[in-house]
Amino acid sequence: MAQYTVAVAGASGYAGGEILRLLAQHPHFQVRCVTGYHSSGDQLGDYMPHLPLYADLTIQDTTAEILNGHDIIILALPHGASGALSEQLNSEAIVVDLGADHRLEQATAWQDFYGGTFYPAWTYGMPELMVGKNTAGDYLYQRSRLATSKRIAVPGCNVTAVTLALQPAVAEDLIAPEHIVAQLVVGYSGAGKNLNQPHLLAAEAIGTATPYAVAGRHRHIPEILQNFAQAAGLSSDQANKFGLAFTPVLVPMSRGILACVSAAMTPAAQNLTDEQIRDYWLRAYQHEVFMQLLPPGKWPSTHNVIGSNSAHIQVAVDRRAKRILCCCAIDNLTRGTAGQALQSLNIALGVSETTALSTLGVAP
Description:
A hairpin with a 4-residue loop joins strand 15 and strand 16. A seven-stranded parallel β-sheet has the order 3-2-1-4-5-9-6, covered by helices on one side. Strands 11-12-10-13-16-15-14 form a seven-stranded mixed β-sheet. The chain contains eleven helices and 16 strands. By secondary structure, the chain is α/β, with parallel strands linked by helices.
């Protein structure tokens, strides 16, 4: 059984802690190095007491010198922090970036939503992303592009939920692309530990819902549009074909995302039955172990996916409004970040894709 040594940068954050939780269950990976900024010099057990296997690891400085020398390097760093660092990392190591620095293919999109230095896009770490069709009309998926990849960029959590919900409609031209509406409820870990809104303190979060990054300002928007272009078989510079009104709302739960996405039906889609429309989601996800299209009338709930790499999806047709409604529930830290990273890493290494990942939530 092949064994790989792993270094995790940003180990004391939400995403770093979640990837360590999953790695602890993986038979092929041995975590030898953890790094951080403010936590440097401390024991990992002070931050992650639920991971006794790694409790005695000392958090080191996040430098290329310390990270190099390991087979796999996972960067769980704030946006803008991994781009320059990654250029100093060993070209033979597999590097997985959980941040945004290598997700976007268009420099203009990066400048509009992030700013600073633009770094080239890496292989996108969403195996189930639809990337067009072959000549026989079969769907093509991002999975094939991940095989043997050494540089993987993991999608954003909100991006994951919205993309998985709507992409079959995009691929089949069932919707008008200009007026897509996405409303999400997001647990506080989905906004990150460094959310720069002092009024959103934990004590004030109880019993309230608060929108954030509204009116077209959320940084995940260009990534979602890039994915829609991929699903439609277009290049990323054609992402402006799609229009998205995106509103995330923080709710008093620690983790989880529920995305409700709708769009106006095309005239051709209006002539289809509800069952015919649903069949496109069945066709897209019937062989995907982590994609669960729920029975008709059953709607996704975040508590059913917590701790799992699953996405629970439902689609329905609002005939009065002439819109298709798609909902997707994920755990933002697992399916939306660390689980998707590990799934992509398994593929890149030729390991069984489901290794150390679960389809089971923790709800009774």
